[in-house]
Amino acid sequence: MVVNNSVPSCVRCGKKSMLIDDVTGEQFCAKCGFVVSEKADASGPEWRSFQKDGGSDPARTGAPSSLTIHDMGLSTVINPLNKDASGKPLAASMKSTIERLRTWDSRSQAHQPVDRNLRQALGELNKLKDKVAISANVLEKAAYIYRKALEKKLVRGRSISAMIAASLYAACRDTETPRTLRDIADAANVKRKDIARCYRLLHHELELKMPVVDPIQCVARISSKLDITEKTKRYAIKVLKDAQERKESAGKDPMGLAASALYLSCVKNGVSVTQRDIAEAAGVTEVTIRNRYKGLKTNQED
DNA sequence: TAAGATAAGAGGGACAT
DNA sequence: ATGTCAGTCTTATCTTA
User: Domain range spanning residue A17?
Assistant: First the structure.
């Protein structure tokens, strides 16, 4: 459950108790149970005020512009009836002008190869979003990265699904949203290594500056799946900090590292947890935990 | 049954050819 | 471009307490 200090008010009961469900990504009111579906939220008018006090006058309305829509939500459709605003049929000369406009309009929207590609990719991204429960700004970032990749012609010859999945993964990394390559691979139905390859390509070619995944973040994620006491968590974090200072953690899978620190902490605190449980929660194997565990343990002793 | 050991294999980075 | 090397992680199987 994510609770930040600017909790929005419920539309129905007015209480400041709107929360985000971690699993579904839906917004709901903790007081009255009102649920805002992701879709309605994304496509509805934007009633956000730009005034400091968050007052009641909307600074703008209309559908939000978004990178996750292939034309950023700025499309217009010229209606197919050849009528003018008052409903009268158009004059012949005007009619042919409108025909031409309509042709160009639709071409500019989706009929160029790049746009078609983008359309499809963003469609996939949209499907992905529901499965991995991702916040809107991460989605925006993913879409942005994909656009960049398209510009640099990196998608050519590669699968769109893999590339959009890699973009999403990159966006997660960038925003420190803890999602593993595996999480995304499962959701996208693409092999993990394919996404990994694409991600590396993006990383290299777009020169993305990624924050290093902090194993300490992973501790929270793993322990949320198990019943871990605050004390145990803190000890695990301390162990990780020590390991980082000794540069012991470089090049190791942060998830594996966090998992074994947590395991070590459980052992030290007399909590009975099996390696299997932790391995499963962390999405790594028991062997990895054992290997890291050995390293961490010898460090503990001096 | 959980934990530890061992072996084989995959995938990728660094570096040399 | 291609090959080799050291290192990591995974999967599978076996042993130990």
Answer: 1-39
Domain annotation covers residue A88: no
Q: What pTM did the predictor assign? A: 0.69
Which nt is closest to the CA of A194, judged by C1'?
B11
DSSP, residue by residue, A49-72:
--STT--SS-S--SSPP-TTSTTT
CATH of the domain at A29: 2.20.25.10
Residue A284 pLDDT exceeds 80: yes
Return the structure tokens found at A31: 């007081």
Total domain count for chain A? 3
Strand nucleotide closest to residue A289 (CA to C1'): C9
Rounded distance between C-alpha atoms, residue A203 and residue A226, angstroms = 33
Q: Is the CB of A251 under 7 A from strand C?
A: yes
Q: Is residue A55 part of a domain?
A: no
Instruction: Measure, in angstroms, how far nucleotide B17 C1' is from residue A154 CA.
Output: 30
